[in-house]
Amino acid sequence: LPGNILDLGCGNGNILRNLCAQKFSGMYMGVDFSPNLINDAQQLYATLQGKCLFKAQFSAFDLVASDWRSISTYKPWEVICAFAVFHHIPGSENRRILFQHVRKCMYPATKFIFSVWQPQNSTRLVKRFQSWNVIGMSESDVESGDVLLDWKSTTSTMDEVGYRYVHIFTPGELQLIATDLGFTILENFYSDGKEGNVGLYHVWQKNDD
After folding, report:
1. What is the pLDDT of residues 163-185, one digit of tens each?
2. Nearest C-alpha neighbor of 148 from the set 174, 126, 170, 169
3. CA gap 203, 178 in Å, rounded
4. Rounded distance, CA 27 to CA 6, Å?
5. Domain of 196?
6. What is the DSSP string of 158-172?
7. Residue 98: inside a domain, yes or no?
8. What are the strands, taking DSSP E only, across the chain?
9. Percentage of the chain with pLDDT > 70?
10. What total number of domains does the chain contain?
């Protein structure tokens, strides 16, 4: 597997193990908003040295606020991926701009592979939907498809409760975005979770300008 991969919202670098197993031999660049997660990804890559054929770079990068020109200089990307990222970006216009940025980083042969959460397909996740009132907001402050989930984590001393914003993309919404911004949807399918359908995956290609 040659080529270059750009991983938007790479988190702690879980994909690195898969790339290693697939004998990927190109260049990987992972970007994420969290410097702590970038540090985790760098440490994981360090443990894989000698076992993998690819070179990796990592950068703390805010998908909404950072300068995308710093990414485009690494063209061409054979694959751009964004797993479980775009649904955490509030505001339809912000998400639209992100899709436009991705398109500008693509060549005609580049594949854009991404996934978005579908928590409405899981009874256990639906039970975690919260009222916007708990964070001082109301339904009028958000857009259709926006939900708030509680996000519990357990530490050595206590259970901590946080909240996560999620926009539930519909298939029709993604189709409209792709058509409007000049993408062709090559493939889409559901996967993930105990139910096997809490993640919606898409593979897009850019149309000729």
Report:
1. 999 999 999 999 999 999 999 99
2. 126
3. 11
4. 9
5. 62-119+168-206
6. -EEEEEEEEE---HH
7. yes
8. 4-8, 27-32, 55-60, 79-83, 111-117, 129-130, 146-154, 159-167, 183-191, 199-206
9. 93
10. 1
In a domain, 83, yes or no: yes
Decide if 29 is inside a domain: no
- Return the ∠ at Cα 61 (arms to 26 and 125), rounded to 5°: 95
Q: CATH number for the domain including 103?
A: 3.40.50.150
| Cis status of the peptide bond prior to 76, with omega within 30 of 0 | yes
Does residue 181 sit within a domain? yes
Q: Which two tokens stand for residue 76?
A: 């061409």
Q: Is the pLDDT of residue 74 over 70?
A: no
Q: Are the beta carbons of 146 and 120 closer than 8 angstroms?
A: no
